[in-house]
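COMPLEX REQUEST
Ligand: calcium ion
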Amino acid sequence: MLHKMAAWMCVLLLLFVAITPEGCPLGWVQGPSSCFFFSQFGGTWADANAICKGFETKLAEPADEITFAFLAGHAASEHPLHSQFYLGGSDMFVEGVWEWSSTKTQVNPNHWEPGNPSDDNNNGDCLTLNAPLKELNDVQCTAIFAFICEAESGEPEQVVIG
Ligand SMILES: [Ca+2]
Ligand SMILES: [Ca+2]
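STATUS: Structure written out below.
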């Protein structure tokens, strides 16, 4: 009986640290230089941030062209039920100054949807990717959208239990 339980514990542990051949956690997709999770459900920007952080990742920050194109293409083809996804960018600190959360670097201004950023009702301070258009939009941070988390690719960290 104990032997059987130990075997199951091993199986569970293996599942816990299992990674795909590309080095991403199960259920995540390999991007050009990191791993991404596309949520199937929506939340506010704060919800999205908290969920990504809860798994020791961050809201996606596609600061380079290759990653931006990858996210837009993958979202549009694989997750067509959602057109917009929250990203880790905001202008909540200085209106009109859009920066990525973790690096504080400026969001490339060439990707805005026509007519945006529009600061929706003086309150559009959170960033979404409009996947079908392959462009960015600013929305109210309390609006509900799906989101994309970003994780480092590579070997998982050692899991210490007990
Ligand atoms: Ca704004
Ligand atoms: Ca807008």
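REMARKS: The chain is about 25% helix and 25% strand. The pocket of calcium ion (ligand 2) is lined by residues 116-118, 120, 124, 137-139 (CB under 6 Å).
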